[in-house]
Q: What sequence folds into this?
């Protein structure tokens, strides 16, 4: 079952400025769904629409199998969220911040201590949230999101501004929550390395359009079929491949080809050499998320 | 029940907030000045010939209602609403399972409750500033009993007079992220009303109602009816604008 499903989600800030264009995402139950894209790609807008923070203009959104608008309150009872920067009352302590949301969600008061322990903030005493470091604020925001034991967590760039150890801590925490409490997590980020080590599923968005959606393995398979030619003349290399209708892609002075067919690679190499083009390297493209992401978003 | 829970959560947010401190300081400021003045002059409310409590009440409210009360209401209502902008918490609030009318009303109610708290502190201060000098200077209780009903009536009238200000400030604070906008508009409205107090159409400015309550100005309209109508209209506009906001966070 898909916990979140959107169809034809389109959003405009003005007549000319289309921020989201026919977004269709499906988040499977129990997954950690990485929502990946460069700054300004439309990640936050999509998540805000899913949470009802932006008025929907076009398309459908269903969460837990129910249309959002008609079931807003019922759906939000089971969602914990952190959108962009931490949302905390700076003049109150961690416990007081949680008490505010405990009143709203009407969950047991003991849950406050539990979530403070989960995020490692149970010893902050009378220190006000405004005096916390950014990492502590992020962790307290996660505690707020977890307070009512939601079955879905929506986190928009939760590692923003965290130092490397903070990022590792956050990652471990999210994996623990996902595995132990069976919480489905949607996490947006532009930190590619971070997402790769955390997610089970991934959606890549750029300029308001979804470029890829599936499991991490599917994404890696997609990239494995690329071979990169590094030559002294990328223009002519590109032209030569075009003549063979091979749909090459130019990137960083190199030319990529969507094939691993040895016969084709050998033939292209021979022709390049015949045309006095120096071939420095022919390699399978790096099978990491960063290169896939750059390939997808650059093209 | 949802509304009560939302109200409780909103009230918790005022703990140690600037609005809360303003309530205490603003509420006790004028009574404290009177207390010091009485003690310094070795005097007390017993010096008044009769209606000693009413005289004391009118004097203190006169000083309060012209500027400090509307200013306090402007600041308190703006501070409470702006707390969400300042802490970046509107989105968290709107992503919680509360209906929009509940969020609007619970926050509005807290603005009212903080004003009631402000009135309460002022009245406590007023009674203490009357009582303490009598005990210290005269070595006796005031010669008259506290006229509770009269005090209550006076308070209700002043509260109604400041309700339109409260509604305007709530509306502006909901719409603008910058704290200076509601406070600036409030200040301009208040000072403008003080300057134009003798203008024939001053009743059009709700910022003048508090002062009109204590300054003997000839007026041919019912201030309290105007105040309540104005409050109701602005509240409805405020709600409509809030509900129609495209981005809630």
A:
């Amino acid at each position: 079952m898909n916990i979140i499903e959107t169809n034809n989600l389109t959003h405009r800030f003005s007549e000319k400025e289309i921020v989201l264009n026919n977004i269709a995402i499906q988040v499977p139950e129990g997954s950690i769904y990485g929502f990946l894209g460069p700054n300004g790609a439309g990640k936050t807008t999509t998540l805000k629409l899913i949470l009802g923070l932006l008025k929907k203009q076009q398309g459908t959104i269903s969460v837990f199998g129910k249309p959002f608008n008609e079931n807003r309150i019922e759906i939000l009872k089971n969602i914990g969220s952190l959108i962009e920067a931490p949302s905390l009352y700076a003049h109150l302590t961690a416990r007081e911040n949680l008490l505010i949301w405990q009143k709203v969600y009407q969950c047991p008061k003991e849950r406050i201590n539990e979530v403070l322990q989960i995020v490692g903030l149970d010893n902050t005493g009378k220190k006000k949230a405004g005096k916390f470091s950014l990492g502590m604020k992020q962790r307290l925001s996660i505690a707020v999101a977890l307070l009512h034991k939601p079955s879905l967590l929506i986190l928009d760039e939760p590692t923003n501004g965290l130092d490397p150890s903070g990022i590792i801590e956050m990652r471990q925490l999210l994996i623990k929550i996902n595995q132990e409490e069976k919480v489905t997590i949607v996490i947006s980020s532009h930190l590619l390395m971070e997402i790769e080590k955390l997610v089970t599923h991934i959606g890549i968005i750029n300029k308001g359009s979804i470029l890829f959606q599936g499991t991490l393995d599917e994404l890696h398979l997609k990239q494995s079929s690329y071979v990169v030619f590094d030559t002294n003349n990328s223009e002519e290399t590109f032209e030569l491949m075009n003549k063979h209708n091979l749909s090459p892609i130019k990137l960083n002075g190199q030319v990529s080809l969507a094939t691993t067919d040895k016969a084709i690679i050998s033939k292209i190499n021979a022709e390049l050499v015949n045309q006095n083009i120096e071939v420095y390297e022919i390699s399978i493209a790096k099978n990491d998320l960063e290169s896939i992401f750059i390939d997808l978003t650059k093209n | 029940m949802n509304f009560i829970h939302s109200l409780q959560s909103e009230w918790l947010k005022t703990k140690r907030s600037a609005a809360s401190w303003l309530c205490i300081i603003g509420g006790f400021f004028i009574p404290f000045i009177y207390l010091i003045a009485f003690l310094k002059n070795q005097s007390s409310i017993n010096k008044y010939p009769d209606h000693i409590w009413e005289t004391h009440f009118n004097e203190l409210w006169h000083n309060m209602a012209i500027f400090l009360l509307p200013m306090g209401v402007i600041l308190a209502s703006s501070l409470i609403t702006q707390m969400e902008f300042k802490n970046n918490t509107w989105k968290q609030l709107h992503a919680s399972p509360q209906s929009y009318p509940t969020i609007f009303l619970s926050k509005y109610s807290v603005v009212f409750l903080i004003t009631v708290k402000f009135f309460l502190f002022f009245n406590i201060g007023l009674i203490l500033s009357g009582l303490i000098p009598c005990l210290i200077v005269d070595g006796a209780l005031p010669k008259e009993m506290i006229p509770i009903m009269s005090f209550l009536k006076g308070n209700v009238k002043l509260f109604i007079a400041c309700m339109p200000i409260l509604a305007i400030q709530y509306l502006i604070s909901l719409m603008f992220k910058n704290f200076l906008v509601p406070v600036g508009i409030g200040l301009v409205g208040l000072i403008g009303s003080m300057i134009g107090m003798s203008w024939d159409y001053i009743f059009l400015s709700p910022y003048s109602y508090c002062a009109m309550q204590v300054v003997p100005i000839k007026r041919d309209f019912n201030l309290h009816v105007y105040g309540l109508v104005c409050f109701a209209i602005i509240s409805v506009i405020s709600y409509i604008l809030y509900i129609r906001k495209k981005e809630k966070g």
